[in-house]
Design a protein that fits this description.
Helix content: 10-25%
Oligomer: single chain
Structural class: alpha+beta
Length: 571
């Protein structure tokens, strides 16, 4: 005889939603998220969010503080104390907002949407923190961060569906069209420097609620703008100060960096940039992952100075290895290897975490940046933001023993084409000439998979349903560069966008190519202010979650990589 499945908080909540006409059935999918199946819903079989103990139905009278403290302490094995405390504060902010909204309707004794969302937030957080699964126990920080952002986003999406404030408002794209923001000639734009235009898109939309988006348009032909990509940690991580020191007209935050990954090992460290970085013609970091990159060529050609975007990977990249015995320059030997030629291969974290050297006459080098960190003819751990270079041993200089401890190896890189400045981000939103034959967002095709950083993209469990602060860039057929700094985490002024929403925004602004850069708390845009003569941050800070009435100061995360837009050099 087949027994009915055991009752869980999820089955009780689902039954309540189905029976009620006043509850949106989409809530069921929200409650199911972060569980393997409908039976994967541990915790007391009731609908009280404050019953947070796994084994009984005791109500915790300060459940929010209890779970905030658990987050701040139990994530320390994976991330630093500042991050753990920030994730705890975000959890507490969202739970408190949902509780306050539920109390506003406490005259109605029935279960509310806000109570169900708070139930899911608490139960899934406890489930994540209490897991004994070997793999998931190393991803607690990633998953707590994700579930908090997810519940927040879905509470906003469900609220928009019921909001009379938004029902008759235009969509985001319609608002762009209404204000004619697809052209710099619109009265909404201020030309604050020759060829540099700025507008703030602010208002209520039907699909994303309140929006606050800063738009920077640069006419690359008339401005003769020079783009400079750099690792900001080498100079200044305050973007306003960096922009002033370099004499840039404007600047935006750049690509991804190591942050929430649990297995960052020396020589890598938290805040290291991820992916391609070319600065002043020098390849600082190779394109380990085949991802969209923003780039500029400079020289004598007719198209030099224009900015382009395309997916760039390791195919055809030349790795120039300098080998010396004990650091003695007189013993220096050079080995040049081109990826995907003569059985030379690149293996990164999107492919595997451990690489086994399958052929007897091959060897592997584990490389991070310009350093070889391990050599083996059997197997190697694949570095988090680096790669394993595998090749036949007969390509090495005669008499060179690569796996000798006395042999020091450094690496330089040459791309198969010349770039002056470039920085990886991803994914590519769309392209008029997409080299993969499609114009849809495809994370896996850009190596956002496996344990490739950032894991917030590679191991995303929300399928682009989170409303978050975003940074996007695009180019138009008229030779303009368009940058959008999308604010979020502010209940009154800006909820944020999905990746698809950011893509739609850039397309509505007239872009024919567009891509994503790092968003979240790192998103930043700085412009030169003619009136004050200062370089100012124009976007809202988005580190903490804010409710309608809050005006407390909000700390800004340092910018670890930056893209500067400079005027032409004086002749």
């Amino acid at each position: 005889m087949k027994h009915p499945p055991p009752m869980t908080w999820l089955s009780l909540a689902s039954a309540e939603i189905i029976e009620r006409d006043d509850l949106n059935n989409d809530i069921i999918d929200v409650l199911r998220a972060f569980g393997r199946d409908d039976a994967d819903a541990p915790g007391p079989a009731n609908l009280n969010p404050d019953c947070i103990f796994c084994t009984d139905e005791k109500v915790h009278h300060d459940a929010i503080s209890h779970l905030q403290n658990r987050i701040a302490t139990e994530l320390l094995d994976e991330i630093d104390a500042d991050q753990a405390q920030m994730f705890g504060r975000r959890f507490a902010s969202i739970s408190s907002l949902l509780r306050a909204a539920d109390k506003d309707n406490e005259a109605d004794e029935s279960i509310s949407t806000d109570q169900l969302l708070r139930l899911a937030l608490h139960r899934r957080t406890v489930q994540i923190l209490s897991t004994t699964d070997v793999t998931l126990s190393k991803q607690k920080a990633l998953r707590v961060r994700a579930v908090v952002d997810f519940i927040w986003s879905q509470s906003l999406v469900l609220g928009l569906a019921d909001s009379q404030r938004c029902q008759h408002a235009p969509t985001l794209v319609e608002l762009v069209e209404k204000l004619e923001l697809h052209t710099a000639s619109s009265s909404q734009y201020n030309e604050f420097h020759p060829g540099f235009y700025h507008a703030t898109l602010e208002g209520i939309t039907r699909d994303y609620g309140p929006v606050h988006i800063n738009i920077l348009r640069i006419n690359l032909r008339t401005s003769k703008c020079r783009m400079k990509c750099l690792d900001a940690r080498e100079s200044c991580t305050d973007l306003s100060t960096l922009t002033r020191k370099t004499g840039a007209v404007a600047a935006i935050s750049g690509g991804f960096f190591l942050y929430s990954e649990p297995d960052i090992e020396v020589p890598s460290k938290r805040t290291d940039p991820v992916g391609l970085l070319v600065s002043d013609g020098q390849v600082c970091l190779p394109p380990v992952f085949r991802r969209a990159a923003i780039m500029q060529r400079r020289g004598k050609g007719s198209e030099d100075g224009l900015v382009d975007m395309e997916k760039i990977g390791m195919d055809g990249v030349k790795c120039i290895l300098k080998l010396s015995s004990g650091g003695d320059a007189s013993t220096m030997q050079t080995l040049e290897l081109v990826i995907d030629q003569k059985n030379v291969k690149c293996i990164h974290r999107g492919n595997a975490e451990v690489f086994v050297v399958a052929k007897k006459d091959h060897i592997g080098l584990a490389i991070v940046g310009k350093k070889v960190v391990a050599v083996s003819s059997t197997k190697l751990n694949v570095p988090l933001a680096g790669f394993v270079l595998s090749f036949p041993t007969n390509l090495a200089p005669i008499g060179c023993i690569l796996d000798d401890d006395d042999v020091l190896i450094t690496v330089q890189y040459e791309l198969p084409f010349e770039l002056h400045d470039a920085m990886a981000g991803g994914p590519l939103f769309f392209s008029d000439i997409d080299n993969d034959g499609n114009n849809s967002i495809d994370l896996k095709s850009e190596d956002f998979r496996g344990s490739a950083p950032p894991v917030t993209f590679s191991q995303d469990e929300t399928f682009d349903r989170n409303l978050l602060p975003r940074m996007g860039v695009g180019t138009t057929k008229d030779g303009e560069l368009c940058c959008v700094a999308v604010d979020g985490r502010n209940l009154d002024r800006a909820l944020g966008l999905t990746l698809q929403g950011t893509s739609d925004l850039l397309k509505s602004l007239g872009c024919t190519k567009a891509m994503n850069l790092d968003g979240g708390s790192s998103k930043r845009m700085v412009l030169f202010d003619n009136q004050s003569g200062e370089h100012k941050v124009v976007c809202l800070s988005t580190t903490e979650i804010k409710a309608n009435t809050e005006s407390r100061p909000d700390p800004s995360r340092p910018v670890h990589s930056a893209i500067l837009f400079l005027p032409p050099r004086k002749s």
